[in-house]
Amino acid sequence: MLKLLEKIKEKRAVIGIIGLGYVGLPLAIRFAEEGFETIGFDIDPEKEKKISQGQSYIKHISSKSIEDAAAHLSATSDFSRVSEVDAVIICVPTPLNAYREPDMSFITSTMESIQDYLKEGQILSLESTTYPGTTEEVILPYIETRDFKVGKNYYLVYSPEREDPGNPKYTTRTIPKICGGYSKLCLEHGLALYGAVIDQVVPVSSMKAAEMTKLLENIHRAVNIGLVNEMKIVADKMGIDIHEVIAAASTKPFGFTPYYPGPGLGGHCIPIDPFYLTWKAREYDVNTRFIELAGEVNTAMPDYVVSKVSEGLNRSQKAVNGSKILVLGIAYKKNVDDMRESPSVVLMEKLMAMGAKVEYSDPYVLKFPKIRRAAWDMSSVDLKPEVIANYDCVLVATNHDDFDYAQILKHAKLIVDTRGVYREPADHVVKA
């Protein structure tokens, strides 16, 4: 009987990916591309159906990539089939609850669904972003219920996802992968597993170090975005274009990395991950003041944008109440269809609460989905000149490349620009 390392080397290991979303699907495709038999697990039967038909359900992932991987890729909602795989890779959401505390329910429910089907000689990797200690404190006890000797006949690692949806410069294969193991032997197996499909795998000394690495990456971004958002407000008061300043500062070849302001933070990582660390730090009597301050600044940005909408409408002696407002872009970032934690939704909520008549246009989200905080019966508006001219305000919330910004500039009565799309001054453009 082949050992796991030999199976991986010979591409005879069967790979199981649990969670076929923005992280799990591209990873499953990558393993299948390399010839590994890959089974995707998801509770959504629609994903199973789409994959069996060779169809993508994520905008930036092509159906062709699924078709090309079809010989080695399948999907199921039957978690008993975990007994068929040699590697279990968990890519499930890790949101915050209403109190900004880690919600481990997706991880625990996954482990409850699969623990009876784990088998000796497997490797299990958690990729979900979480606080340092999760893999050992939450995952390990489920494995130990099977009386496996983790590090001897079962292997446990943590390897955080690093997907950047919509960025064509980097792929699952070319983004370096961090991996930390429960033991040296666990790490050896993790490096072999990911090294078979990813160009560079970076080992760290422990699972906690790997978990902390992911948090540092995203907290670094959250803090710097908070800084530039605060700088934007100061610059605006002084009559300075923050985007001009960022462009000028970016010419410095050392010591400066450009970050860009916006209407708030969105996505499954940056608005959430910092609070995983602040929560865990309290266990050690540490106050993460710097991180929390950045969170306060970023969370307040939608209110700042709404004040700019009000300011712009006031110029025409109009109130927010009763005005027709078109929000451009409701995905959390440009050129993707991902709406998780999108600040656009917060903006829409706030404007509606003030009495505005709000609609949206987004070529990536043609029908407003049912999400946790909103379930509006809306569809994307077609941006014809006469349609644009019918709104009291066009709010640029997500700067998709598909929008015709010249046409919008020509026909809109008022534009509130949160993304620095319009660099040249115009009487009817308010920078926010």
In N-to-C order, the SSE pattern is HEHEHHEEHEHEEHEHHHHEHEHEHEE
Q: Please tell me how large the radius of gyration is.
A: 23 Å
Helix/sheet category: alpha/beta
- Could you name the CATH topology of the largest domain? Rossmann fold
Q: List unreliable stretches of 5+ residues.
A: none
Largest sheet: 8 strands, mixed
How confident overall, as mean pLDDT? 94
The level 1 CATH classification of the largest domain is Alpha Beta
Number of domains: 2
Number of helices: 14
Classified in CATH, the superfamily of the largest domain is NAD(P)-binding Rossmann-like Domain
CATH architecture field of the largest domain: 3-Layer(aba) Sandwich
Identify the overall geometry: globular
What is the total tally of β strands? Answer: 13
Alpha carbon gap, first and last residue: 64 Å
Helix content: 25-40%
Read across the widest sheet, the strand sequence of neighbours is 3-2-1-4-5-6-7-8
How much of the sequence is in beta strands?
5-15%
Structure commentary:
It is a single chain. With 432 residues, the protein is α/β, with parallel strands linked by helices. 38% of the residues lie in helices and 12% in strands. The protein has helices at residues 4-9, 24-33, 45-52, 63-69, 105-114, 134-144, 184-195, 207-237, 242-249, 273-282, 289-315, 343-353, 385-388, 405-411; strands spanning 15-18, 38-41, 73-76, 87-90, 123-126, 155-158, 177-181, 201-203, 324-328, 357-361, 393-396, 415-417, 429-431. The protein has an eight-stranded mixed sheet with strand order 3-2-1-4-5-6-7-8, with helices on both faces. A five-stranded parallel sheet has the order 10-9-11-12-13, covered by helices on one side. Strand 7 (177-181), helix 7 (184-195) and strand 8 (201-203) form a beta-alpha-beta unit. Helix 2 (24-33) crosses helix 4 (63-69), helix 8 (207-237) runs parallel beside helix 11 and helix 11 packs across helix 12 (343-353).
